[in-house]
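Reviewers of the previous submission asked for a worked example of the structure-prediction workflow described in the proposal, so we include one complete record here. The input consisted solely of the amino acid sequence. No template or homolog information was supplied to the procedure at any stage.
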Amino acid sequence: MKKPEKIRILIADDHYIVRMGLIALLNTEPDMEVVAEAPDGAQALELFVRCKPDLALLDMRMPVKNGIQTTMEIRAQFPSARIIMLTAFDGDEEIHKALQAGAQGYVFKNSSGEKLIPALRAVVAGQRWIPKEVASRLAARKSFEELTSREVQVLDELAKGLANKEIADILNISEHTVKDHLKNILAKLRVADRTEAVTTAIQRGIIHL
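From that input alone, the workflow returned the following structure tokens.
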């Protein structure tokens, strides 16, 4: 009798210990086999092209290419690729971007094996895997007005502790325009001041330090 084929998995994470732990965990499952592992997004893309796994488990924040870029590039070449985003972060903006890029599942790094394994099987079977807490954050996100790319740039500079004039010089806009952007940012994020705006933007994954 022919053995059932195993789910072939690619793992990408820049933390060696996390990678080795995942490989050890998944290889104990009778229907799973880790066929490739990568420390960054660029290598993950190369290995995906070479190995064509059934599923890729990608860390959200990796060097060279992050998980979102890697997902977009894999899906551009392999539209039916199955991808789960693995992350320690739960900002609604990052979750939204990952799913928009083509990831079908989202798993937190602090999940137990009992939560991770069913997620992998579900996504390989063609289902989406969105944990309850992720779904509620995505629902909450819809109530916020989206920031423009220029507003995000202003926030990035704000996070460096720069004054309005310095931000204006860097972005090649007037100080008055910076003030206008700031007013919009505070309104959209529903915060009272610059410090709160930066804190909220980091928590939601709109900007990264």
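The chain has a mean pLDDT of 90. We consider this example representative of the routine output the project will generate in years two and three.
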